[in-house]
Amino acid sequence: EPEVTQTPSHQVTQMGQEVILRCVPISNHLYFYWYRQILGQKVEFLVSFYNNEISEKSEIFDDQFSVERPDGSNFTLKIRSTKLEDSAMYFCASSESIGNNYGYTFGSGTRLTVV
Amino acid sequence: AQSVAQPEDQVNVAEGNPLTVKCTYSVSGNPYLFWYVQYPNRGLQFLLKYITGDNLVKGSYGFEAEFNKSQTSFHLKKPSALVSDSALYFCAVRDGDTGFQKLVFGTGTRLLVSP
Predict the structure, then answer these.
(1) Best residue in A46, A50, A102 to probe B by mutation, most B CBs within 10 Å?
(2) Burial letters for A29-54: b for 16+ Cβ neighbours within 10 Å, e otherwise?
(3) Tally of CA atoms within 13 A in the half-sphere of B98 that contains its CB
């Protein structure tokens, strides 16, 4: 079964530091996403990415956030200057839109702790 | 904009009894509906989806869900609960008539199955 892989599984960073969360989506998928979940709460959409550009973003995804697909396999989320409230579980997902599949596969997440 | 409501924070059921986890949705176009399960400190695992066709959808681990357009509901069911089904369950919706691919999640329902 193809998987979405996220690294690292845990990241602790000091407030104000930059972090990069990494994801390897499923190889034949076309759409990529980042979601976050503050401890035990709702899963919130951050951004979607298609054809090397952002296709949609939420109000959470402000100028502190950026996404990139630096090569053919990785998809990254960068937070430029982390705040305490950025502490959350960050999930990467990918999907294909061919036919009627519309399947979304999520990675196991990166737990980000900002201290 | 689409939204999902999961009216119960927690559902308690005894092992062997049937379980239902409720979900209602709001979307302007055709609803694409999904259920995901999250075990402690883990990612989101796909259970089942409704895109089109038969209103009763069967998924992983013996779960099923019934799409009811008139009631805008997509309740998750299982005929006989297992202790191992105890987890956090998320319903999600996507507007199938727009080019936007994002999933919008409900707040989650914690299922507790007692022995």
Answers:
(1) A102
(2) bebbbbbbbeeeebbbbbbbbbeeee
(3) 15
Contacts of B87 (CB under 8 A, 6+ apart): B37, B38, B39, B40, B110, B111
Nearest C-alpha neighbor of B33 from the set B79, B65, B60: B65
Q: List, for residues B1-39, the tens digit of each pLDDT value.
A: 889 999 999 999 999 999 999 999 999 988 999 999 999
DSSP B49: E
- Please give chain A's pLDDT, 115 residues, in tens: 778 999 999 999 999 999 999 999 998 888 899 999 998 788 999 999 988 899 999 999 999 999 999 887 899 999 999 999 999 999 999 987 654 456 788 999 999 999 9
Q: Token match 């996404």: residue?
A: A67
**Pairing mode of beta strands A53-57, A43-50:** antiparallel
| Residue given tokens 């989320």 in the structure block | A77
Nearest CA in chain A to B89: A42
pLDDT tens profile B45-77: 999 999 888 999 999 999 999 999 999 999 999
Task: Identify which of B39, B32, B44, B38 has the alpha carbon closest to the alpha carbon of residue B4.
Answer: B32
**Cβ neighbours of B32 in A, within 8 Å:** 102
